[in-house]
Prior knowledge:
- Helix content is 51%, strand content 13%.
- By secondary structure, the protein is α/β, with parallel strands linked by helices.
- It folds into 2 domains: 9-144, NAD(P)-binding Rossmann-like Domain (Rossmann fold), CATH 3.40.50.720; 149-242, no CATH class.
- α3 runs parallel beside α4 (77-86), α6 runs parallel beside α7 (157-169) and α7 crosses α8.
- It has helices spanning 17-23, 31-36, 51-57, 77-86, 124-136, 146-155, 157-169, 180-194, 197-205, 210-242, and strands spanning 9-10, 26-27, 41-44, 68-71, 92-98, 113-120, 140-143.
- Bound molecules: NADP nicotinamide-adenine-dinucleotide phosphate.
- NADP nicotinamide-adenine-dinucleotide phosphate binds next to α3 and α9.
- Residues 1-243 form the Prephenate/arogenate dehydrogenase domain.
- It comes from Hevea brasiliensis.
Amino acid sequence: MIKQGHTLRATSRSDHSQLCQDLGISYLRDAIAFLEADNDVILICTSILSLPEVLKSMPLHGLKRQTLFADVLSVKEYPRDLLLKVLPEESDILCTHPMFGPESAKDGWKDLAFVYDKVRVKDEATCSSFLRIFENEGCRMLQMSCEEHDKMAARSQFLTHTIGRVLSEMEIKSTPISTKGFESLVQLKEGTVKDSFDLFSGLFLCNRFAKEELKNLEISFEKVKLKLLDMMNVRQDINDSNL
Ligand SMILES: NC(=O)c1ccc[n+]([C@@H]2O[C@H](COP(=O)([O-])OP(=O)(O)OC[C@H]3O[C@@H](n4cnc5c(N)ncnc54)[C@H](OP(=O)(O)O)[C@@H]3O)[C@@H](O)[C@H]2O)c1
């Protein structure tokens, strides 16, 4: 964003001033000073589970102008509903999910998916210029409803993270005879456990479609297990009849 000529200010509960200084971002410890600054866009990047607490701690009465609120949470109906509830009518709301993070985007954002839903946008110019930041970096821009996103993400991202966490519980590691398939499982495990447990639990607790997918996973696991046990019984029968 800085490379594209934008001015950035940040605030958080912890002190990130050194990192911000290194990146050329002004860091404001005081949320009031942050909200009173002349921000076109306020981009919310907190953990999914802390969003209600973070919004509650923001003195929204301090807003001095019409502002676009955007978020990057990995679930979308949940922040949409909260933002519609707490933000003043005159604030615009853009719900987004960059489908990438520090690992997958370390070499740039080109061809990576960027999902967005214009939940309440009156100031089209500001919204378009915010979206252009991602377009300019070559992201695949996907406009879809928060509901569509959550349905799809429960069946893809939540599933990926759940399987990664299961593999981590199993403590899988590369072996000298690893196949490429197994190596991709090891990579999946390593990639998912790098994300915080807050993020993973948010994917489950704050996406109404995730419970069904967890159930589907359990049912499918049982089906595969039954197929194997059936085969075991068939072989036992063959062995018995050969005796
Ligand atoms: N990681 C990814 O690949 C990725 C990709 C797309 C979207 N996202 C979304 O981006 C957001 C941030 O993700 P993340 O990977 O940085 O990890 P995260 O664990 O989901 O979030 C960490 C952030 O949440 C803040 N936070 C946590 N608990 C808080 C609380 N009780 N009160 C106030 N702030 C709190 C932290 O602030 P402090 O640093 O001040 O403690 C930090 O900024 C999430 O909503 C996630 O779903 C992540």
